[in-house]
């Protein structure tokens, strides 16, 4: 489980915007950039190249 205090200080490394924690998917989501950063072994991977694009999953 990711530390709640850590979640309050993390921001998107790309735009410096707020992130949403998706507990089920184990991801931190940036709605501005439409990116989802994975959480592996309870450690957020805050690397843009490791993020998943949310636009790929958007419905038309």
TrEMBL record:
GO cellular component: cytosol
Domain of life according to the entry: Bacteria
InterPro entries cross-referenced by the UniProt entry: Trm112-like
One Pfam short name: Trm112p
Family of the protein in this entry: Belongs to the UPF0434 family.
Protein name: UPF0434 protein MAIT1_04183
């Amino acid at each position: 489980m990711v530390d709640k205090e850590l979640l309050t200080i993390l921001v998107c490394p790309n735009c410096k915007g707020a992130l949403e924690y998706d507990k089920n998917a184990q991801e931190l989501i940036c709605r501005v950039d439409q990116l989802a950063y994975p959480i592996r072994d309870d450690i957020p991977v805050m690397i843009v190249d490791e993020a998943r694009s949310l636009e790929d999953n958007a419905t038309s």
